[in-house]
């Protein structure tokens, strides 16, 4: 076996398929772009769907990649099995309507067995095939695989519902008898069974059918190849590792963790090893996810990251690690992956800062949470229920940040279950957020070849001209059919040249008119998108019939286009201004450039203050007032990057790119339209700023006329306020507001004092009515107060004076009910808890609550139940006996 490290193995795979005419696709961001069906990129093919369904035609139909992916559907198995991971790399080669089964099998065999490449022993390789796929079996035999190394398996059919599907062939590596964990006669002891000896290393999918909506399977117009080879598994074979974790992809993180731990070193205790493995695995996923722009939160991707961090922290506690430590593994991950993912190490300081912040936040409550959890475990053992109830599981989540999955994992080791149905009642919304974030879109669309073979050239000339006098109509589509002539109604058309911009990069499509040679209006352009082969595909409302090969005049709405240009240039200025204010880690996360406003989403960990926005706005306006020239050059991506141009990580760039420079202030890759000088923008004004998700914020802004109108509207509002305040001049408004605030504060204090006196008078009467029940004294009654604060003040007075053993007070505040329960310390020592009493009586007001053993409170929506609550309190005290 060759001695290769993970970087060499990855590169060898890519080099092999490059030698077979494949283009190497860079690993895409873990955050899906324009794919709401996925929470994360979870496979190599996930980034290729647009090619397989025919919506985009690749420049080269042969593609290969090493794609970072995240899957968290079986997170509980991570660390407990040899091969479960949250983040992994999927090596893949893809054919989009080019080579098929025979070539894929021939090349697969060559890569695995040739001495020039992997050089594995052919006798150690086994293949599974779909029983009806006689071609696959025949082609494996052709390359030299014997019959006894080919196994038929009914489940060798790749199908995810509607869309491309087909049989597949899995390849297994025989690791030898020393890895065998089953008896010789065990029914799972074969390649493809559940065992440790035969390791699946590759899956080749022969995508040859469309799974139709009616459940039938029809042959694809273009057959495809989609393969997946897990890098971590292949590395474990080359490095003869017992599991994936004993490879150079994980051991550096394990060794770093071991240096921080005060317990047994790795490899000495299988139970402790689980914690080392969890930390090593999760540190990779967390680092890559945050590096790609996801941030910890309580929903969607952010919830996954938060859960991974908390899982790792709890496992760190099991290893005796005190305080934050996970952030120290970030640069270790970056170093391990540097050869193929240099950006991770470059961002390591920023990523580590976020991880440490999240660790600090969790560590603040972790000790209390673990203390509560251990108490709950002890109680369930004591009462022999062996179940943590749903309310307590929710409290662990809500108060101490324990996801229910973490609670379950922790209790499983003690033989205790969690009432997850009860938890769902308390926590259904939060529990389902991650699933809902995926949306309801289909995972992959049906393959549609209507425009795939339409390769007529079409040139966009809108950078220079907004009108074309002699455009030839090349293609017409009506009702999803290619036709030669249009009637009135809606159609899609392609011209040999066009001034209409197709929607891309956040910039909306142009609108305008189509005229015949006599100047008559024949159609109105309502939208423009890119066809699979890149042409500008116009959606039009036809006024007069149009014919293929006819000549037409195309005219863009200049006013509409000009306003879009202004706002697009403003997004470039805004992008750079945000980097100047918040740091280079700030990245564009989306944009929309309309004629009347612009919307810009960006990554930022933390709040954005009014002062921050003012700085950003001032920077942008300074560039407008500086009258900077806006210039564009065409070059290749590498040259553009050397020039310092900012590229969006989620975008795929062709051989030629446009680099847009705004003076010396901003330089970006951009295919959109821009003004020639920043002075054309006139003015820039931010209308709003808000958070729209975990670590993602949104700015909406306007320029030019809209900016003036926005400021003018606000000035009118300010003048009206000044008039209402009787301020003689606008500059007097702040002083008038300060005077009003002082007056309101004084009146509030007077009101509060009066309420306190009234409450005190009522309390004197209530405190006189002491019930003695079986040796326990109780005061229970209702009072008129302004809210829970005054109830707590009365409880403090009661405690200082020692009026009784137990106090129960209720109050109606507007249309709601408030309850407070206090218990004397002596009675708390005897096991009487305020929290138990509040839970018993709060249903009378349709509410709930809790608190400490000596003080608890509740709120409800049924004030009429307050008297019933007082009666229930007396009954509860009677039951103590």
Helix and strand layout, with pairings?
Layout: H1 6-19, E1 23-25, H2 49-52, E2 62-70, E3 87-96, H3 101-113, E4 125-129, H4 134-142, E5 150-152, E6 157-158, E7 163-174, E8 198-211, E9 217-230, H5 231-238, H6 251-260, H7 270-291, H8 300-318, H9 330-336, H10 342-346, H11 348-382, E10 387-388, H12 390-400, H13 404-412, E11 417-418, H14 420-437, E12 459-460, E13 467-478, E14 481-483, E15 489-495, E16 497-498, E17 512-515, E18 521-530, E19 536-542, E20 551-556, H15 558-582, E21 588-593, E22 598-603, H16 610-625, E23 630-635, H17 637-642, E24 657-662, E25 666-669, E26 684-693, E27 696-703, H18 704-725, H19 733-768, E28 771-773, E29 776-782, H20 788-801, E30 806-813, E31 816-823, H21 825-829, H22 834-841, E32 847-852, E33 855-860, H23 866-879
Parallel strand pairs: 1-2, 4-5, 10-11, 12-16, 29-30
Antiparallel strand pairs: 2-3, 3-9, 4-7, 6-7, 7-8, 8-9, 13-14, 13-15, 13-20, 15-19, 17-18, 17-20, 18-19, 21-22, 22-27, 23-24, 24-25, 26-27, 28-29, 30-31, 31-33, 32-33
Structure in a nutshell:
By secondary structure, this protein is an alpha+beta fold.
Tags for this model:
protein biosynthesis, 881 residues, 5 domains, alpha+beta, alanine-tRNA ligase activity, globular, Elongation Factor Tu (Ef-tu), domain 3, BirA Bifunctional Protein, domain 2, catalytic activity, acting on a protein, six-stranded antiparallel beta barrel, 33 strands, DHHA1_dom, metal-binding
């Amino acid at each position: 076996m060759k001695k290769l490290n993970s970087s060499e193995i990855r590169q060898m795979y890519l080099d092999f398929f490059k030698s077979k005419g494949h283009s190497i696709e860079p690993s895409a961001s873990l955050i899906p772009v324009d794919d709401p069906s996925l929470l994360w990129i979870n496979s190599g093919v996930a980034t290729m769907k647009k090619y397989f369904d025919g919506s985009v035609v690749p420049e080269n139909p042969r593609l290969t990649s090493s794609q970072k992916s995240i899957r968290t559907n079986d997170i509980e198995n991570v660390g407990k099995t040899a091969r479960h991971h949250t983040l992994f790399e999927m090596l893949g080669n893809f054919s989009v309507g080019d080579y098929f089964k025979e070539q894929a099998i021939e090349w697969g065999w060559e890569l695995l067995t040739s001495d020039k490449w992997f050089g594995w022993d052919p006798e150690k390789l086994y293949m599974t095939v779909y029983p009806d796929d006689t071609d696959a079996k025949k082609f494996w035999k052709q390359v030299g695989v014997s019959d006894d190394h080919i196994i038929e398996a009914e489940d060798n059919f790749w199908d995810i519902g509607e869309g491309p599907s087909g049989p597949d062939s899995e390849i297994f590596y025989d690791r030898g008898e020393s890895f065998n964990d089953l008896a010789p006669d065990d029914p799972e002891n074969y390649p493809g069974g559940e065992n440790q000896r035969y390791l699946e290393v590759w899956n080749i999918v022969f995508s040859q059918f469309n799974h139709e909506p009616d459940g039938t399977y029809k042959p694809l117009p273009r057959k495809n190849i989609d393969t997946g080879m897990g890098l971590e598994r292949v590395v474990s074979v080359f490095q003869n590792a017992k599991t994936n974790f004993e490879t150079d992809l994980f051991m550096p993180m394990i060794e770093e963790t071991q240096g921080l731990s005060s317990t047994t070193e790795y490899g000495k205790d299988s139970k402790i090893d689980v914690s080392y493995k969890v930390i090593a695995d999760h540190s990779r996923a967390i680092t890559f996810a945050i590096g790609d722009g996801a941030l910890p939160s309580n929903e969607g991707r952010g919830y996954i990251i938060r859960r991974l961090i908390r899982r790792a922290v709890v496992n760190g506690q099991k290893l005796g690690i005190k305080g934050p430590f996970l952030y120290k593994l970030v640069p270790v991950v970056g170093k391990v992956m540097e050869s193929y993912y240099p950006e991770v190490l470059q961002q390591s300081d920023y990523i580590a800062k976020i991880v440490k912040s999240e660790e600090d936040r969790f560590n603040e409550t972790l000790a209390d949470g673990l203390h509560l959890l251990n108490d709950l475990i002890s109680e369930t053992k004591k009462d022999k229920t062996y179940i943590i109830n749903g309310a307590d599981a929710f409290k662990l989540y809500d108060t101490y940040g324990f996801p229910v999955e973490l609670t379950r994992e922790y209790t499983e080791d003690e033989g205790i279950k969690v009432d997850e149905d009860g938890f769902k009642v308390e926590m259904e919304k939060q529990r389902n957020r991650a699933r809902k974030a995926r949306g309801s879109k289909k995972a992959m669309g049906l393959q549609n070849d209507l425009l795939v073979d339409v390769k007529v050239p079409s040139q966009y000339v809108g950078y220079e001209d907004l009108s074309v006098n002699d455009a030839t109509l090349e293609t017409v589509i009506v009702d999803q059919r290619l036709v030669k002539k249009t009637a009135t109604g809606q159609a899609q058309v392609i011209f040999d040249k066009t001034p209409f911009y197709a929607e891309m990069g956040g910039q909306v499509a142009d609108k305008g008119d189509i005229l015949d040679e006599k100047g008559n209006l024949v159609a109105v352009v309502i939208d423009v998108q890119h066809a699979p082969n890149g042409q500008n595909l116009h959606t039009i409302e036809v006024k007069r019939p149009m014919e293929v090969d006819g000549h037409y005049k195309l005219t863009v709405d200049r006013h509409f286009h000009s306003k879009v240009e202004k706002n697009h240039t403003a997004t470039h200025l805004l992008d750079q201004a945000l980097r100047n204010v918040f740091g280079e880690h700030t990245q564009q996360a989306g944009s929309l450039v309309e004629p009347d406003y612009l919307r810009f989403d960006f990554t930022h960990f933390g709040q954005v203050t009014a002062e921050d926005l003012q700085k950003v706005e001032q920077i942008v306006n300074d560039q407008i007032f500086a009258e900077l020239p806006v210039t564009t050059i065409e070059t290749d991506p590498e040259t553009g990057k050397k020039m310092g141009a900012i590229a969006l990580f989620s975008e795929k760039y062709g051989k030629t790119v446009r680099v847009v420079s705004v003076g010396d202030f901003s330089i970006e890759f951009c295919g959109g339209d821009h003004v020639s000088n920043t002075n054309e923008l006139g003015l820039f004004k931010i209308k709003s700023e808000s958070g729209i998700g975990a670590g993602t914020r949104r700015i909406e802004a306007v320029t030019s006329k809209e900016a003036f109108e926005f400021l003018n509207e606000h000035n009118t509002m300010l003048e009206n306020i000044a008039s209402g305040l009787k301020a003689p001049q606008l500059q007097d408004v702040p002083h008038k507001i300060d005077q009003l605030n002082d007056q309101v504060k004084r009146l509030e204090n007077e009101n509060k004092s009066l309420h306190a006196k009234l409450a005190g008078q009522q309390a004197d009467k209530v405190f006189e009515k002491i019930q003695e029940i079986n040796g326990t004294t109780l005061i229970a009654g209702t009072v008129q107060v302004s809210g829970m604060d005054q109830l707590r003040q009365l409880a403090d007075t009661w405690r200082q004076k020692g009026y009784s053993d137990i106090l129960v007070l209720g109050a109606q505040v507007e249309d709601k009910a408030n309850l407070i329960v206090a218990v004397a310390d002596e009675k708390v020592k005897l096991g009487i808890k305020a929290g138990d009493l509040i839970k018993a009586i709060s249903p009378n007001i349709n509410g709930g609550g809790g608190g400490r053993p000596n003080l608890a409170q509740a709120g409800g929506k049924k004030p009429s139940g307050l008297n019933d609550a007082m009666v229930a309190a007396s009954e509860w005290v009677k039951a103590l006996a």
